[in-house]
Write a structure and sequence with these properties.
The complex is a heterodimer. Chain A has 2 domains: 111 residues, Immunoglobulin-like (Sandwich); 226 residues, Jelly Rolls, CATH 2.60.120. Chain A is built from no helices and 30 strands. In chain A, 0% of the residues lie in helices and 51% in strands. By secondary structure, chain B is an alpha+beta fold. Strand 24 of chain A pairs antiparallel with strand 2 of chain B, so a sheet runs across the interface.
Chain lengths: 352, 80
């Protein structure tokens, strides 16, 4: 039996009656009407929901530009919250949907929030959620068993299958890399970034060294050929450019370009910030600033090369896991944890 | 004799993977010591080295570079 749509003229909420004719629950969101469009500031966002019928609530938020899901804290309560990234000079837009369900009948309030960007001032980075459906896992040798995401802490937990023990899984050794990696197309303000564009990406990584069960070497970078199984600095494959970290031996954080990694060791390191510059079909340079508690300065690294991009076209974000030493064995069940964020921007090519 | 210096502010402990002068891929924990040769002295240094001769460069010339690198290493490692 079809669901009968209904509309509340007071709150603007829409919904459908249950097959048995149950009335949709009453639902309203403070300061919001159904199908409304609003402008907000970047940073912490929250709603106050009125749910007098004690219906089951669910609030979902997605980025308009690519449909990626935004993590919502307390999404089933009357006070859900999330973080709106500023998205650079043009800002971003989020689609928010609050759904109330009771006895099979639903009511819904949906609206759009555009971020009133403050330009380049105090930008809020975009949080990476590898499980939100916008990332693709390429894992030619089935190194990854599971990946999970904690919506509260932003931490990913990856559990591995047995593997490693070959330079093929070390992104910083030789020209072959068959390790697991997640990738997605990189957009800035809804526009796909091309290798010809003058691109700046700040990669922010919070690795958790207490959960790093094998001697690993990982990266959060950009590439134009994310499913390549070669990784050479100058002439083929992934041509990585971005942030890199390794464990154990303290917390080691730094940068990578192709298969060349420079990672500084400091047992107190907590957060890695790596800025990568590329454009005009060249892989350029990456520099890192590593922070420890305080925050205070811990270390810095840089890698540069000005190498010609071999696969021109779309630029992707890529997150890869590997081993640091070629003999390192990954035991089934080994885990690692990390939190990833980024800010990407491009310059008008006419600037040069 | 041409001059040699070290960029002491950039000396640091790193885990590095990169390529050697002969193309060999390197991958190990290291102390990075950036050596600075004044542009005006580059040709003079090249003139002091004949890679086809096993006795080149002369010990005195080699020592100057070696001491610069080793002094930087001593400072980094806190040696007295």
């Amino acid at each position: 039996m079809p669901v009968t749509p209904c509309f509340d003229p007071t709150t603007g909420a829409s919904g459908g009656a249950a097959p048995g004719g149950a009335t949709p629950p009453t639902l309203s969101v403070s300061g919001r009407v159904n199908k409304g469009a609003y402008t907000v500031s970047s940073g912490a966002r929250s709603l106050t929901i009125s749910n007098p019928d004690a219906a089951t609530l669910l609030t979902t938020v997605k980025l308009s530009t690519d449909g990626s899901a935004v993590t919502v804290t307390d999404s089933t309560t009357t006070s859900p919250s999330w973080t709106a990234a500023s998205g650079g000079a043009d800002g971003l837009a989020y689609e928010v949907t609050v759904t109330a369900t009771k006895s099979g009948a639903t009511a819904q309030v949906s609206f759009t929030e555009a971020v009133n960007s403050t330009g380049l001032l105090a930008m809020t980075p975009t949080q990476v959620n590898l499980t939100d459906g916008t990332w693709t896992l390429y894992d030619p040798d089935s190194q990854v068993d599971t990946v999970s995401y904690d919506a509260v802490t932003g931490l990913h937990t990856v559990t591995m299958n047995a593997g490693g023990a070959s330079s093929d899984y070390n992104p910083g050794s030789g020209s072959v890399f068959r390790g697991a990696r997640w990738y997605k197309l990189l957009t800035v303000a809804g526009t796909q970034v091309d290798s010809a564009d003058w691109l700046t990406v700040e990669h922010i990584v919070d690795p958790t060294s207490t959960t790093a069960d094998w001697v690993q070497r990982n990266f959060f970078a950009t590439t134009t050929d994310p499913t390549s199984t070669t990784n050479h600095t100058t002439n083929s494959g992934l041509q990585l450019l971005g942030a890199a970290w390794s464990h154990p031996s303290g917390t080691e954080q730094g940068t990578c370009i192709g298969n060349s990694f420079q990672i500084a060791a400091n047992a107190l390191s907590e957060t890695l910030r790596a800025v990568a510059l590329r454009g005009n079909d060249f892989v350029g340079m990456a520099a890192s600033l590593v922070l420890k508690s305080g925050p205070a300065f811990a270390s810095a690294t840089q890698r540069f090369g000005q190498y010609t991009v071999q696969t021109t076209g779309n630029v992707y974000l890529v997150v890869g896991l590997g081993i640091k030493t070629n003999t390192e064995v990954i035991v089934a069940g080994d885990q690692t944890q990390f939190r990833l964020r980024y800010v990407a921007s491009t310059l008008d090519s006419g600037t040069f | 004799m041409p001059a040699v210096h070290v960029d002491m502010s950039a000396v640091g402990s790193v885990s590095i993977s990169t390529n050697d002068t002969d193309g060999t891929h390197l991958d190990f924990d290291a102390v990075e010591v950036p050596v600075l040769l004044p542009r005006a002295d580059v040709q003079a240094w090249l003139d002091l080295y004949d890679p086809s001769s096993s006795s080149s460069p002369l010990a005195a010339d080699s020592r100057k570079i070696a001491r610069a690198v080793l002094d930087a290493l001593r400072l980094h490692e806190g040696a007295q």
